[in-house]
Design brief:
0% strand; 87% helix; mainly alpha; 82 residues; rod-shaped
């Protein structure tokens, strides 16, 4: 079984290689436009996935630093009381 990317490429080549009379010209035009939209959305999805991963890494770093700062503040507060 082919993956979805292979299926998209198969359909794209079908529309690109379709000869006159084999498929309606409007159907060919719309088919190719639809394939281009799918490929564009795939690129955007990849970009957004990378941004989410980076945001999660940044959040983890901030969370770790906040924990360290809170502990340090508590230690400083305790030492000032003594």
């Amino acid at each position: 079984m082919r993956g979805w990317e292979d299926e998209i490429n198969f359909i794209k080549h079908y529309f690109e290689d379709a000869e006159e009379g084999q498929i309606d010209s409007k159907a060919k035009e719309f088919g190719l436009r639809l394939i281009e939209m799918v490929l564009h959305l795939k690129k955007e999805n990849h970009f957004l996935r990378e941004r989410v991963i980076k945001a999660n890494q940044d959040f983890e770093w901030i969370e770790k630093r906040a924990d360290e700062w809170m502990i340090k503040a508590m230690e400083n507060s305790e030492s000032k009381k003594l």
